[in-house]
């Protein structure tokens, strides 16, 4: 369990102090794949560096399995960091070492003998599907292969937590998918908790079970991925889900007609089309002014805006839709922003 409690981080500059984090509080359970998402400058990388004390918080505490690591000495932290490893956007491999020796490196630092280190490294290279690249150098590999080597190196000391700081941002979509699948496999097979720092919603949607949205150093939303992304409450959350402001445009498009917001929060993706069924059973015809839905693990999440002809139709539609499991319906106020 990772408990981040009221963590703040201030950097002193020549001109003024910069508050990168402001009272961040999060709980990350063992075995979670926890996403921390936000736009550039939100404080994501600072937060992840506070988790392993590469940056010490100005205020607050970080507890790992009940131990407040903000109170540990540098010598004590070196031991803790074997349990909290990290991969980066830039891979950070040692270019003069072979892939095998890159994976062996943290084991050498930990005092493991060469025979045992090599055996462990080969097991990890096999796990990531690159045993045949043991004697290759990083420059001979693709970006995705280099990141796999970086993951193997991060796993060498049998960590409890894997921190991923924009680890797929430099990769193409197909390679990103394969790296995320590898992280998921590691999470499931080895029970490692993963913390995914990203600015990409698609990354969080694909792999994470929990998410926190960070905005200007403040956690503005957190919870289950489907719940947060299906009905964002904060301005930052809405910018991520509706990057072009489509929701506001859709409300205006109603031209004075009643508008219903339908929120899908885990509805069955294989269910009979909702709007067609509503027209047949209630006689209410609705036009779709806006829709942003996505399928996650066979369930539908997202938002749809419907325009109907009258308040009476709106009442019927809301009653019909609200009977469906995993779906919420409400009328949009006419003065909504």
Structural notes for this entry:
The structure is a single chain. Helix 4 crosses helix 5. The chain has helices at residues 44-51, 74-80, 99-109, 114-127, 143-155, 173-190, 201-207, 225-230, 235-241, 246-252, 274-282, 311-322, and strands at residues 2-12, 17-28, 33-37, 59-64, 67-68, 84-88, 161-165, 193-198, 210-215, 218-224, 259-268, 287-296, 299-307, 327-331. A hairpin with a 2-residue loop joins strand 4 (59-64) and strand 5. It starts with a strand and ends in a 6-residue tail after the last strand. The protein has a 6-stranded mixed β-sheet with strand order 6-7-8-3-9-10, with helices on both faces. A 4-stranded antiparallel β-sheet has the order 2-1-4-5, covered by helices on one side. A 4-stranded antiparallel β-sheet has the order 12-13-11-14, with helices on both faces. With 337 residues, it is an alpha/beta fold. The mean pLDDT is 87.
Q: TL;DR?
A:
The chain is an alpha/beta fold. Helix content is 35%, strand content 29%.
